[in-house]
Amino acid sequence: MIKKDRMFYRFSAYGFLKNLRFFEPFIILIFRANGLSFFQIGLLYSVRDLTNNLMEIPTGVLADAFGRRRAMVLAFSAYLVSFSIFYLFDDFYIYALAMVFFGLGEAFRSGTHKALILEYLKRHDMLDLKVSYYGRTRGASQLGSAFNSLIAAGLLLITGDYRTMFLAATIPYVIDLLNLATYPKFLDGKLVALEKGAFWGQAKATFKDFKDIFSDVYAMRSIFNSASFTALFKITKDYLQPILETFALALPVLLFVDDVERSGMVIGVVYFFIYLLTSYASRNSDIASRRFRNLARAINISFLVGVGFLFLAGLATWLNLVIVSILVFLGFYVLQNLRKPMNVANISDQISQRVMASGLSIEAQFTTILVAIFAPILGALADVFGVGLALTVLGAGTLLLYSFVRVQERPLS
Hints:
Layout: H1 6-18, H2 27-33, H3 38-54, H4 56-66, H5 68-88, H6 92-109, H7 112-123, H8 130-159, H9 164-181, H10 198-214, H11 217-236, H12 240-250, H13 259-283, H14 285-290, H15 295-318, H16 322-350, H17 356-385, H18 387-399, H19 402-405
Helix pairs in contact: 1-8, 1-9, 3-6, 3-17, 4-5, 4-10, 5-6, 5-7, 5-9, 8-13, 8-16, 11-16, 11-17, 12-13, 12-16, 13-16, 15-16, 15-18, 17-18
């Protein structure tokens, strides 16, 4: 049984506050309102994820030397710089700079908080509860996203200005920074002295971990299954926004406000219910996984269902069946949050505790590489053929990956 002590609620508070990014439900609409094409938006996503990828090793070395808590503080400091740039400017190239800082924040944060939680579970002999524990703390993150949507809609109604949301997002991020800075010191793990050549040494050690992990077909498939599906979700999830905007503007309601405020209110309410459901899904991911014969089967089936959801969402959008597209996207969101705790647990089962951080880091790096490659491609397809057909093509293409990412249960030795 999960011990809901003070740290459980602090871990949950971290996720709740982290997801109060008030601009997020409207990010594509914000970029489009400032004259960016879908291709340029895809390029911004690539800048963010390439920065994350390139800084993964240096930030990992710094986290090992100075502690995971300090790494998280640096992450949130970079986020705050990014939000400030987005608030103050509205140029594509300046946005790219903001994405560099955002990617830097992701690099310091990526996998680090999971490692903090796993260190805590190890210290308190609760590693066998990792699916349930991580799922429940992730549920708090999704609850934060739900309230984020309503608050964002309210801000838009009051100010009528998308950019205000970047400024407002600095408030919960400062609070979360203070929360992280005061985590117990033992969660840092064993600190490693920062020596000359440490970055090169870490790069070689990471490369060795890559070789060790990728010589193991079970670990490789687990990592690539998680990374490919997560990348697919990250690339496509924001395309729900223009679909919702089309839906909102067609409704014969709220005609007393302008189009931006009307679409903002509808989008905020829809995202609120989406994230309530994803919060419930995260908290009950362990129950869902137990309905299958084993964890590998649950992950494989959910991969196929998720790709099918994306294909159907794109097809429905292309055929102008907007309500069907929204409902299928809802299923896609819920499925991602059922899968995430399962994947973390599955990866941890396939690799040793000694290289756990490397395993999670490799998964994160593969995710960012896939996002960096395919986000501009999806954007270009959307510019030429429309959002619906672009999503349909990506869903069909991802299905071809299944034979390479199908998770296999490791035989008993």
